[in-house]
Amino acid sequence: MASIARGKGEGALFRVPKDPRKPLKYWQAVVELPGRDGERRRKYVRAKDKPTALKKLRALQKELERVGDLPTASMTLGAWMKLWYDEIAVHRLAPKTAAGYQSAIRQHILPEIGAVRLDKLEPKHVRDLNRAIRAKGRSASTALQAHRILGVALRDAEREGRVTRNVTTLLDAPRRSHVSLVTLDAAAGIRILDRAAREDVRMGSRWAAALLTGARQGELLGLEIDRVTDRLDLSWQLQRLTWSHGCNPRDPEQPRCGRIRGTDCPDRFLRTPEDHEHRHLTGGLWLSRPKSRAGWRDIPLVEPLRSIIERRLAASAAEPNPHGLLWTAERKKEPYVETLRPLDGSPIDPAKDNYAWHALLASVGVRDARLHDARHTTATLLYEANVSEPAIMEILGQSTLSVTRGYRSRGNHAVLGDALAKVSALLTSDVPPHAPELAAHA
Residue 272: inside a domain, yes or no? Predict the structure, then answer.
């Protein structure tokens, strides 16, 4: 008699081994799933006793009826995260964002819950992940980032039918810890601008631009001379990006270069989404488009920054500049050599730029602050000058009003008003009209 194939959702329960004379190993339930490519698909579950196996069978049938399909086999979360990053995430994310995802996956998600099977993942495991990150002394923001990355990966796993639910949606995400933004007051800004205008400091114009435009570090370091007119065209930014192996080290059938880092691979390449615009400068430094269209903006070049930038342009005309950048690396002393290395027009490394900023603050007696905090100072002064919020958003290149408002100072308005008056006086009278060139290129 020919067997009749079961329909979708139909199930069976049987003893293993079937011979009742042999000792029982377990009870196994099976549910018929929708076929794919003409092949029959079934989902199996096991239990030590018949009532538990029957309960699991009914649960599978109920879940199948709810979602329409079930995964037939489950990989571990770690295997999925690696597959998801290589096959999905890197084709969707900008290189810097993808590098942040990879770091969170490698440092937190894989070590803590990577061994858990996808179909066994529970809210408890997500809580364990968050708890483990905080136990390492990391911030709530780090825990929130890992939670969000896991949530996106599980959302894609659910779309592919690998899981039936995204467990990160079943519990609250970690709350980001409150961060007090550091705002350099106007008096500090006056000291920095005065140093930029009066002293023989090569990067003076670069710091003046940071304070007077609120532009990000990469936007200024990546500013090209041909994008400086009566406006500053901030449509590109300098970034250090990570090279990937081109020898395909994950494929055992392909020859490997034997190098650990992708940057040392002879066949290295930059893995980016197809719609990501980028231009290679040198080494790991690239020019890339801002992450959102709000970042593609022109900022009017007004006094005194106009004069400061013009002096920098005049000096750059006599310097090597293969990449056409407004600001290039300073002369450096070679190891074991007393003479300075000649200027070569190489881009300024963001890490060295950050170090120079902290050294500048210390030299003028200003409290230490992140370079990014110069944007907070610009935003505060714009608010105090009664500039409209849409205009502030456009100047700073922000896409949401909530972010812009987060930069707003909550200090004493009278004090800030007085400080702004001092800044205005500085910009109109204190800056020498014919200050020496800021670049120490001699």
Answer: no
Q: How far apart are the first and last CA of the chain?
A: 98
CA dist list (Å): 380 to 71, 131, 185: 53, 36, 9
Write the CA distances from 160 to 30, 165, 166, 183, 292, integer angstroms.
21, 11, 12, 47, 28
Measured over the CA atoms of residue 68, residue 72, residue 76 and residue 82, the dihedral's sign is negative
Pair of tokens at residue 142: 């780090």
Distance CA 68, CA 70 (A): 7
Q: Please choose, from the candidates 236, 220, 219, 235, the residue with its C-alpha nearest in 3D space to the C-alpha of residue 280.
A: 236
Q: Tell me, what amino acid is at 86? A: D
200 and 141 belong to one structural domain: no
User: Which has more pLDDT, 266 or 377?
Assistant: 266
Q: Which domain holds residue 140?
A: 77-170
Per residue in 25-76, pLDDT (tens digit) is: 888 888 888 876 667 778 888 888 999 989 988 888 887 887 777 766 668 9
The pLDDT score that the predictor gives to residue 5 is 57
- The CATH number given to whatever domain includes residue 103 is 1.10.150.130
pLDDT-derived band of residue 184, with 50, 70 and 90 as boundaries? confident
Same domain, 85 and 42: no
**347 lies in a domain?**
yes
For the full predicted model, state whether its pTM sits above 0.85.
no
Task: CATH number of the domain at 384, please.
Answer: 1.10.443
| 311, 304 contact by CB (below 8 A) | no
pLDDT category, 404, cuts 50, 70, 90?
Answer: low
Positive or negative, the Cα torsion across 261, 264, 269, 270?
Answer: positive
Task: Count how many domains the chain has.
Answer: 3
Task: Say if 437 falls within a structural domain.
Answer: no
**Structure letter (DSSP) for residue 268:** -
Same domain (yes/no): 309, 194: yes
Length of the chain: 442
Nearest to 371 by CA among 220, 174, 222: 220
Q: Would residue 273 count as lying in a domain? A: no
Are 315 and 337 members of one domain?
Answer: yes
Tell me the three state secondary structure of residue 61.
helix
Domain boundary among 67, 92, 109: 67
Rounded Cα–Cα distance for residues 242 and 239 (Å):
10
One-letter amino acid at 351 equals A
Q: What percent of the chain has pLDDT over 90?
A: 27
| Mean pLDDT, range 365-388, rounded to an integer | 78
